[in-house]
Amino acid sequence: MKRLLILMAVFAIAAFAADVTGNWKASAEGPIGHMERTFAFKQEGTKLTGETVSSLAGKSTITDGKVEGDTVTFTITVNIQGNEMKLNYKGKIVSGNEIKFTVEGAGNTIEWDAKKQ
User: Fold this and answer.
1) What predicted TM-score, i.e. pTM, was given to this entire model?
2) Reduced to 3 states, what is the DSSP secondary structure of residue 94?
3) CA separation for the pair 45, 17 (Å, rounded)
4) Distance (Å, whole) CA 110 – CA 103
5) CATH 1.10.150 fits 2-116, yes or no
6) Residue 107 reports pLDDT greater than 80
7) Half-sphere exposure of residue 106, counting CA atoms within 13 Å on the CB side?
8) Residue 6: phi, psi to the nearest 5?
9) 37-46, 73-82, 98-107 — which one is most confidently predicted on average?
10) Are 39 and 21 in contact (CB under 8 A)?
11) Does residue 89 have a pLDDT over 70?
């Protein structure tokens, strides 16, 4: 019985997860000023994959991506001037076309506002 309840809870979470599949454009103010980044998300159930591009770090692949309810999480690895670093994204879906991300990496935290294109 307990397994059945757990299984039902997992399916309920997946059913209520938003679908973020598509192209998104994000902007933020960081240590070097205004930044922009694009995302091409592909979601299957709660699994999130895709890639992202910025003028500063180029193209990166999304890894460990999940969409659970209104929360989006994933990691990317960027290479800036020969230095590789992991950036951990955690976002809250504000509406069907907006996500507010907090990104942590290299000792910094940056707030991104992403809008579906």
Assistant:
1) 0.82
2) strand
3) 8
4) 5
5) no
6) yes
7) 13
8) -65, -45
9) 37-46
10) no
11) yes
